[in-house]
Amino acid sequence: MSKACLVLARITGRLHLWLLTTFILGVAAGSFSEEHKENQLRLSYAFLMCRNHSLARWMFAKMLRRELDRSFDSNMVLAQLAWFLRRTRLSLLLYGRTERDLSETSHAAIAASVRKFLEGVLSDRIYDEISAAAAQIPRPGKGGGPIVVTVVSTRFLDVFRIWLRQVQRNTPWHGLVIALDAETAAAVRASSGCSVLDVSAWFRFDEHGRLDRFNGNTLWILRVLTLRALVNQGWDVISLDIDAIVVGDLEAMLKSLPGSDVVAQMDYSIPMDVARRFGFILCCGFMVIRSNERTIRFLDQYCARTALEMDDQLALNHLLADAGLSNRVQTEALLSFQSSGLSWLCPAASLVSRDIGYGSVVRHFPLMDRSASVVMQSLGLPEQSAEYTQEAAAGSDSLRGS
After folding, report:
1. Residues 183 and 100 in one domain
2. Tally of CB atoms within 10 A around 268
3. Cα dihedral 172, 176, 180, 181 in deg (nearest 10)
4. Which CATH number covers residue 138?
5. Sorting pLDDT into bands at 50, 70 and 90, what band is 386?
6. Are 21 and 139 in the same domain?
7. Measured between alpha carbons, how far is 376 from 162 in angstroms, rounded to an integer?
């Protein structure tokens, strides 16, 4: 892929010329080789955005003839593009073909897990299983309250210990852990007091414990299905990424805010076209969804859009972009607006930040490969206090099944 093509694709993408970007990256500029992962992501997004254009089908046919069976990556990207076109049968056939041709390899297991999951999404079997599991979560006692949901894998158990400790210190609410592997499910059940949704059947990891990137699409769909099941069963839900740490009184903050259907973190990131249009996007790392008829209807739309786009944050912001914003009001403390039949509220960054160094209530930051000790130090948590050290050591041992 020539450097000129890459530069041109970045320019056309920034101008939202999606068909041209797809043509440059998908038809004119070479293959979907693994070393060009960033360009695969750019191609997938451009294709998603122009999927309803007749020329998109022509370009997909060209890419299919050129790329089919060239590599694991090429087949997985082709299957994703077919899914965007709502050619679900072809998409599943491509995943199945990859699984068969690469049998007894880790790539085959990844293709199989994605195929089986998407089949379950199409049939509603996955949602039914999640709903049945959600129905078993113990209800809070007098006074009720929301449920706090996060996603954890073994690689982040140490950070989860910090996350859980801060949730328990700063909220009175019950937690639900979506466990991506069996070891995490067992460890959390044994020590945390949280409910556990074991979804390990759908995920594969490399030798370093990193989730395969194609399984990442599964994660986002599954998370929204879980939120939908909980809200449908009457739960108010607080969804927090594992790297969204509660450092202040979350209950007090939510009570101080005006009433709304959804509270969500404000950011300026992906999807960038929506960020440029509105001046912000909603980040799914911190969301509060209150259960009512309006949010139940919206979550039906949100699940369908996430299942199509394979990304919850893209889907959420595209739904808002399609509906538009009205009654937009911004103060030093918050941004509020109406969209998609709901009232939305975003706390100011002074309350909920996208940085580890500030945010008086929630700090949501890029975790990357930060160790638990580095996270604690950056958050200003009392790592060296006797009480903290003893409890942390006990928690770490139990979470690792020692």
Report:
1. no
2. 13
3. 90
4. 3.90.550
5. very low
6. no
7. 8
